Amino acid sequence: MKIIRYWLIVLLFLSFLPRLHAIFVPDTNIFQKSAPIFPHMLFTDTVNNWRRTENSRPYWVNTKEEFDNINKMAEHQISILLNYDILAYYGHPASRNMGILGRHSIEELDELLTELAAEYEEVSGRRKIRKAFYLIYGTVWPRGEIGIINHDILMQYIEYGMRNNILIFIDHQIGRFDPFDSLRTMLPYLRYPNVHLALDPEWRTALPMVEIGHLTAEELIMAQKIVEDYLIEHNLPGERMLVIHQFNAAMIRDRMDVKTNFNRVRFIHCADGFGSPALKRHTYAYNAQAMNMALKSFKLFYDLGIPGAGIDDPLMTPAQVYELSPRPYVIMYQ
Question: Is 108 a residue whose pLDDT tops 90?
Answer without folding.
Answer: yes
